[in-house]
Amino acid sequence: MYDAALLAHPLNSRVRKREKMGGKGAMMVAMLCLWALSATTEAVVMEEEPGLMMNFYKDTCPQAEDIIREQVKLLYKRHKNTAFSWLRNIFHDCAVESCDASLLLDSTRRELGEKEHDRSFGLRNFRYIEEIKEALERECPGVVSCSDILVLSAREGIEAVGGPHIPLKTGRRDGRKSRTDMLESYLPDHNESISVVLEKFKSIGIDTPGLVALLGSHSVGRTHCVKLVHRLYPEVDPSLNPDHVPHMLHKCPDSIPDPKAVQYVRNDRGTPMVLDNNYYRNILDNKGLLLVDHQLAHDKRTRPIVKKMAKDQAYFFKEFTRAIQILSENNPLTGSKGEIRKQCNLANKIH
Q1: Which terminus of the chain, N or C, has less C-beta within 10 A?
Q2: Residues ≥6 apart with Cβ < 8 Å to 252
Q3: Which helix (H) or strand (E) holds 234?
């Protein structure tokens, strides 16, 4: 047995305190080590999953962007309307929650594909995306995502019709399911008020000048009569330019047009195959085909920007470039998220 007086000695008391403090110190050191290890692990994960970047495929598929460019040029020579399809694809895919090529997925027994929804009316030429994918698979199997093909083909399509070159990041991965149930929440309808349209674009980071610029894509292509007959029948919309109405009535002679019929009106009769600022001059002259075109030219929030873009194509291209970049980077799947589809119209699990 220990002597009680010895145990109570002040020196032994200090020793015991030092032992306790030493134990606490060791515990703190261990905790710091664990924190450092955790931080290092997180840093490694972040390093492995860098997200979008310029020239993402420079090591894994150096020819990827060149292949997409050449394929788009080849297809454009054969089918001029493919350029308009590329441009519509990026909006209809990337504006709906994520830029992940969900638009390209076919319908299944359980789920309707986005491209079958009413808001996707008129979208076509999806088979040409598959042609580009096949060309890439021959060069670099299982490397380039369909979402990057969709985005880069849009860029090349924009250039094909005279638009600006737009530097775009890559590294997206493909989603595994359609987002049909979300379409109406994200994609504005042509009959909705300009306030609703502004709000929906704002929700994905695109401001008012960006919205006005993106709608400048109505400079090219054509609009099916289904989308504009409400401005012609039963009475002509008085806000339409009366000089433009006879042409519209000639192209859309039926108050209830057949959706499958080839009944269209060119968006811009002056330069129908060129992406330029003529669209803004047209809508200021009340020649816009859609209700949203008319509102864009006359709403106090957008009219000053429309007038500026009508006078300055460089300004239009600058804002258009910025808006496409924001759109293309909307909530992408990167790193280990999603997949690289073998076919763009099917998720891999269905193969």
Answers
A1: N
A2: 225, 228, 229, 232, 263, 265
A3: none
DSSP bridge partners of 173: 333
Q: Which of 92, 117, 224, 294 is catalytic?
A: 92
Average pLDDT value over all residues in the chain = 86
Q: Tokens at residue 273, please?
A: 């195959």
189: left (phi over 0), alpha (psi -120 to 50) or beta: beta
Q: How many CB atoms lie within 10 A of CB 111?
A: 15
Whole-model pTM? 0.84
Exposure of 293 by Cβ count < 10 A (0-12 exposed, 13-18 middle, 19+ buried)?
buried
Mean per-residue pLDDT for 64-93?
90
186-195: b or e for each residue (b if 16 or more CB lie within 10 Å)? bbbebeeebe
Question: Distances in Å between the alpha carbon of 239 and those of 236, 249, 297?
Answer: 9, 15, 11
Token pair recorded at residue 245: 């109405």
Q: CA-CA distance, 101 to 147, in Å (whole number)?
A: 5
pLDDT tens digits along 6-57: 344 444 444 444 444 455 555 554 455 455 555 544 444 445 567 899 999 9
SS3 of residue 303 by DSSP? helix
Peptide bond into 234 cis (omega under 30): yes
Beta strands in the chain (DSSP E): 222-224, 264-266
294 part of the active site: no
Q: Which amino acid is at 319?
A: E
β-pairing, 264-266 vs 222-224, is antiparallel
- Tokens, residue 159: 């250039």
Instruction: Please enumerate in sequence order all residues whose Cβ is within 8 A of that of 56, keeping only pairs 6 or more positions apart, or say none.
Output: 148, 169, 170, 171
| Per-residue pLDDT at 345 | 94
Locus of tokens 């979008």: 52
**End-to-end CA gap in the chain:** 79
